[in-house]
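Database export, one record per block. Field names are fixed; values are copied verbatim from the stored entry.
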Amino acid sequence: MEKTAVVTGAGSGAGRAVALALAEAGWRVALVGRRRDALGATAKLMGASKPLVVPCDIQNASEVSRMASSVLAEFKTIEVLVNAAGTNAPKRSLKELSAADYERMMRTNLDGAYHCVQAFLPGMRARGSGTIVNIVSDAAKQASAKAGPAYVMSKFGLAGLTQSINAEERANGIRACAIFPGDIDTPLLDLRPAPPSAEARAKMLRAEDVAACALLAIELPARAIVEEILIRPR
């Protein structure tokens, strides 16, 4: 198996943690995200593993296509795709949610993952193997006012995309895992209407916990598919 992976949202949070864990496990990793400086900071943390830094706004299907071409030109094949990019908005309730914020969340959290899946699936099919990990949210298990409707809708959709990959692609040697984390201490918390205190953050999951779940789904033998992982703070 070619140990090559693409991680979106790799500039911070769960995406950065997954990228670091993959590099530690000997994978060649392409770091994808909007901000080159944030991706560069992740790359620096990865030391000698020499990741490929590919800035890309995954909301844009054309940018995703160019990103995939750059990655495949360097890596030739991709065995793993981790969709970890995600966003929310401070004004997220039905009463306050703007059309612009709604569309941005759907394009980032759901459409972006779909574009990335479609970009790398053909190569996985041709090779007869591949693992796709979607970092979802426990908001896709039960809607909550804390998450807001646009975030909830996008994450329910991402869970559906994961199920669809397994329904259609397992015969082609491709498997997908949806990880449903509860509260994680990441920069995304700063977008809450009332960001949690340091004391509250200390009781949450760490991004590394989510990365450990991703590595479990990725490194199990190809005969096994971990379709869902629900992980919450103790």
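Remark 1: The chain has a mean pLDDT of 95.
Remark 2: The chain has one domain: 4-231.
End of record.
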